[in-house]
Each structure stands twice: as structure tokens, then as C-alpha cells.
Specification:
Strand content: 15-25%
Structural class: alpha/beta
Order of helices and strands: HEHEEHEHEEHEHEHEHEHEHHHEEE
Distance between the termini: 17 Å
Radius of gyration: 21 Å
Number of domains: 2
CATH class of the largest domain: Alpha Beta
Largest sheet: 8 strands, mixed
CATH superfamily of the largest domain: Response regulator
Number of strands: 14
Helix content: 25-40%
Length: 402
């Protein structure tokens, strides 16, 4: 099946039901080798898959979650993709685009991998684009997906385009801000796409922006007390904030310490409270609203299997980072099986990825769009206690983007 356009996919999702409750076109996720979609294929020689993720440095925790998701798929599928044994070669993405580019060159030129996965940083993704395209080796990226990544033929992403969380939040924020909304974000290349997408959607829904627009803070600054005090004194009734990683931890803790008035809403892309950062934020994150393409409490069969397997393997609740990496393995699983007829190489694999149908994912069913990114649902979540566990709890479905 070829890519769906937006209208076709909306009809498909409507027919499939909320969160993929109807029978999927392609069941690419399963809970063990006995249900592997490619078990009927003859076994071929092993395949090399290269993984580029942060193994050290400030993004190591993110890299661990990405690694966990991919490894979980392999563990529950007898270490096979497309019914072929997998040799997974992991290389550190590092802290700079140059390190990530060197990793991509090693994997494609020296190790001669069949395909690549991973990539946490948008800057790294842009830096390795020409390397991937020249090598003609498909990259099924599971995190970084900058808006500026255009015209790539061999780069697919199972996460989301960077501007989509803000775009998904705009109308809901306009309807629920309760007055004027302040906007704060780190002044970092690429982050303006996220903020501007939110601002456009918010204004289109007649939302009222507090003050003179966006209040930018320095990238990875530690003290947010001044900007928080400005917002507190501005008369704003809500705030949109875009931070990730250690900056998200620092910002949320200081937001809580600033003691905003009751009823004040903090609204953000999911990165503010997702995965490992929520563990570090603890109760300080309670009440924050976020938009994300995944919530651990989505009620579908694929997610129930995923949650159970992930908890058993790692003793924690999976994040969207782990889920997208799990889905990257699912994409490669089916595509390698399809590309093996009659012979498998990177070119035939890339073509097979382009023909995949719907993926039965823990996030709900999705399919690659013409942009080589998922056409998928977006969910509103709020940080709450779910039993004794602090979690991003699903509150509503926002929209479909892709």
C-alpha cells in the first residue's frame, strides 16, 4: 500500500475506531516470536542494523529509553527482524553534530549496515542527512525530526515533526487559557519552529497572547526565577513553555516554587514532562498539561502488550521515546521481510518501507505520510497520580497530524 494522504488517512482512522480498536491492516507489533508477522518467511543470513543514540553526556537518559524500546522489540521477537538474526551495532551520538556524523559514516562506510535507527538530536539529524542520502542506506529515526528536514529519500521517522506538539495544542489552549497566555521558551536553533507553530494555531483560534509575544531564555540556563516572576506579575492566566531534558526539570521545579495562583495553567509540548524528566520532577509536575503522540494509559491491545513487556524488562513505564524506537523496529521487521523477496539490500529495503500499510502501534494505528513521518493522533495529557504512580494521564484526543 502506498502512502495515505491526510484525507484518506482520516477516513481510515475513522473506520478503524479510536486508538486502533478495529483489526489493523498490518499488525507490526506482537508479544512474542509465536505471533511474529514474518514467521512464514524462509530464514536468511543475519542483518546488521546500526543504532545512533546518546550513550554518554547530557542526553544519555534519552538514549537509554530509545535503546530500551528497540531492544524490547528484539527480545520479544527472538532477536529477529524479517525472520533474520540481527546484529545491532550501537555507536554513541555524542553531544555535537560532528560526533553524530562520524557515527553515521562509520556505520554506513565501515560496518556496511543494512539500515540505521535512533538519532536524538535535530542538529545531528540535519548534519547526517547528506551522509545517509549518499550511502543510500535507510534511516528509520526514532526521535529527531526537524521541520527543516526536507526532500530526504532515505530518512524515515517514527516520532513526529518538531512543530506538531505545539500545533496540536493551539486550539485547546485558546479554549482553556481562561484569559491571556504567556509564552516562554529556550532560545535554541530549531525550537522556534515548535513555538511558532503553537503561536499560529493559538492565534488562529482567537487566543490572547500576554505581553509582547515570546519571552526567550538562554539555552540550558539554570535560573528561571526572573522570567517566571515576569509572567506572574503580567496578569497572564496560563503559560505555554517549551523545554526538554535538564532544562525541563529545572523549569518545572522553579515554576512550582514560584507559587502561581490557583487555577493558573502550565501548558506544553510533551517533552516538558516526558519519560525520565518526570521522574526527576516528581510531584512538582502535578497538574501540567501536555500534548503528545502517546500516553501510557491508551487502551488498545498493542499498548497493553507493550506496557506489560516493558515493565517486565525494565521495571518502569515506557515513554514516547521508547515507543517510537519500538515502532522503528516494527517497521524494519515487516519491511525486511517484504524486501527479502527476491533479494534484500538497502535499496529494496527502502522501497519496502515506502509500501508499508498501517502500523498497529501502542500509540494507536498510524501510517507513513508523504513526508516520511507518521500520520497520527495527538493526545492531551495531564500529570496526575495514577494510583500511587505519577504519570501523564490521558484526558482527551486533540487532533490528527502528519
Amino acid at each position: 500500500m502506498s502512502h495515505l494522504n491526510r484525507r484518506q488517512a482520516l477516513r481510515l482512522f475513522a473506520a478503524a475506531g479510536v486508538a486502533g480498536t478495529a483489526a489493523p491492516l498490518l499488525s507490526a507489533c506482537s508479544s512474542g516470536s509465536s505471533s511474529n508477522t514474518n514467521v512464514s518467511l524462509p530464514t536468511g543470513p543475519p542483518v546488521k542494523i546500526g543504532m545512533i543514540v546518546p550513550l554518554t553526556g547530557s542526553r544519555k537518559d534519552l538514549g537509554n529509553e530509545m535503546d530500551n524500546g528497540f531492544q524490547l522489540y528484539l527480545k520479544t521477537h527472538d532477536n529477529k527482524l524479517g525472520n533474520r538474526e540481527v546484529q545491532l551495532l550501537k555507536v554513541d551520538e555524542g553531544e555535537t553534530p560532528d560526533i553524530g556524523k562520524a557515527a553515521a559514516e562509520k556505520l554506513t562506510k565501515e560496518d556496511r549496515v543494512l539500515a540505521l535507527t535512533g538519532v536524538a538530536s535535530a542538529a545531528t539529524m540535519l548534519a547526517i542527512k547528506d551522509t545517509i542520502e549518499a550511502a543510500a542506506v535507510p534511516l528509520v529515526g526514532s526521535n529527531a525530526s526537524p521541520v527543516a528536514l526536507q526532500s530526504a529519500k532515505y530518512i524515515w521517522r517514527t516520532s513526529f515533526v518538531a512543530n506538531e506538539p505545539g500545533q496540536a495544542l493551539g486550539k485547546w489552549a485558546a479554549d482553556n487559557a481562561g484569559g491571556s497566555l504567556a509564552i516562554v521558551a529556550a532560545d535554541y536553533p530549531g525550537d522556534d519552529d515548535e513555538v511558532n507553530a503553537f503561536l499560529e494555531a493559538f492565534k488562529s483560534a482567537q487566543g490572547d497572547v500576554n505581553g509582547n509575544g515570546i519571552r526567550f531564555t538562554q539555552f540550558q540556563q539554570k535560573d528561571y526565577s526572573q522570567v517566571l516572576q515576569q509572567v506572574k506579575q503580567s496578569g497572564a492566566t496560563a503559560m505555554f513553555a517549551f523545554y526538554a531534558g535538564t532544562s525541563a526539570v529545572d523549569f518545572v521545579k522553579q515554576f512550582k516554587a514560584a507559587k502561581f495562583p490557583a487555577g493558573f495553567k502550565l501548558i506544553a509540548p510533551g517533552s516538558l514532562t516526558e519519560g525520565y524528566v518526570l521522574k526527576q520532577q516528581g510531584n512538582d509536575a502535578q497538574g501540567i498539561y501536555t500534548a503528545m503522540n502517546y500516553s501510557p494509559d491508551l487502551d488498545n491491545a498493542a499498548n497493553r502488550r507493550f506496557i506489560a513487556d516493558y515493565q517486565k524488562a525494565y521495571g518502569s513505564i515506557p515513554s514516547t521515546y521508547a515507543m517510537a524506537s519500538y515502532d522503528a523496529a516494527a517497521v524494519l521487521d515487516k519491511a525486511i521481510g517484504d524486501a527479502s523477496r527476491p533479494s534484500l539490500d538497502s535499496f529494496s529495503l527502502n522501497a519496502a518501507i515506502g509500501k508499508l500499510g498501517q502500523i498497529d502501534s501502542p500509540r494507536g494505528g498510524w501510517q507513513f505520510s508523504q513526508n516520511r513521518t507518521p500520520l497520527q493522533r495527538w493526545y492531551l495529557r495531564q500529570v496526575r497520580l495514577d494510583g500511587a504512580l505519577l504519570s501523564n494521564v490521558l484526558t482527551a484526543e486533540l487532533t490528527t497530524l502528519g
